[in-house]
Amino acid sequence: MPPAHLTVRAITPAEHLSWLRGRRSASFLQTPAWGAVKSEWRHESLGWFRDAELVGAGLVLYRQLPRVKRYLAYLPEGPVLDWEADDLAVWLRPMADYLKGQGAFGVRMGPPVVTRRWDAATVKAGIADPAVRRLGDLVPTERSHAGARVVAQLRELGWRPQAVEGGFAAGQPQYVFQVPLAGRTEDEVLAGMNQLWRRNIKKATKEGVEVASYDGPAIEPELKSFHDLYVHTAERDHFTPRPLSYFRTMVEALGAEEPDRIRLYAARHEGTLVAATIAIRVGGHAWYSYGASSTEKREVRGSNAVQWAMIRDAIAAGADVYDLRGITDTLSEDDPHLGLIQFKVGTGGEAVEYAGEWDLPLNKPLYKAFDVYMRRR
């Protein structure tokens, strides 16, 4: 297919959403609604056209340089296009040309392409082995030839891989933990979990933990309680919480796009909120997006109960995968994130490595200045 047969131009949010509805999987960060969530940045929907047919789409966030009307064009976990194409230049060059015309000095994207997978047993064995420091020290359960081909093509086309740690504040995780659901029943997924997870789910039921879920307008009355618990969690676990206004915007924007796009879950024990989460789904991909848990009453296992409720609902909705989002690639016992990895490994899923985020400098002096600026922050 000659490059001239593929063009890129702006499309309306309605066109973008309509096209995404025909896809089995796309990141929620590539939905038109996510542009509304990131309202502090200029955003735009792009479409790839072969003649008059829309064949790809992406959400672009424009981050402006200080005091200069030039932008880093960022496509988080996107764009959504044919990443198995023999010649990615046909797709990526017209995108770069268009974005340069919009004032972009560089492009950053996160191809939704898997490169390696490690099953739960492999990760568990790695955690137990003092000689293993990182996921990369383990032989993967699966290597993706398609992913390797994408990485090789990006390098050939002048794209630069970004470091997993530090740098761009909006950077997305390269390593995530996922539970495959396609073709599996609730009983099969439960049987795949480790003994501790199954025991904790059973204990939560025995202790009388009740999980309720809310969508649409029903989320708003619950959101303040969720946020209070989330702030408590942030203080305990030493991370900076997002404000309540962020979650209100997120619920409003995503909820307006599809009725079942976003859902809030609340686990209560004798009327006390012990765990709460936010789940998002696009097509066959379901995510655990945000979570909070109480320091008190941890023994009733509200966190396990609420996760199991989300997984069951994802199965009922016909999802192919339940995504617990980011993990680090470090498995050392002295790593502060090890407990989070162990919690996720208990679900019996798999650690998944994506191709990561890549930059294409369009104006090299400005791109270098931006890179220096971000490193100093």
From TrEMBL:
Keywords: Acyltransferase, Cell shape, Cell wall biogenesis/degradation, Peptidoglycan synthesis, Transferase. PROSITE patterns: FEMABX. It comes from Nocardioides agri. PANTHER family: LIPID II:GLYCINE GLYCYLTRANSFERASE. InterPro entries: Acyl_CoA_acyltransferase (IPR016181), FEMABX (IPR003447), PG_Glycine_Bridge_Synth (IPR050644). SUPFAM superfamilies: Acyl-CoA N-acyltransferases (Nat). One of its GO terms (biological process) is cell wall organization. It comes from the Bacteria. This is Peptidoglycan bridge formation glycyltransferase FemA/FemB family protein.
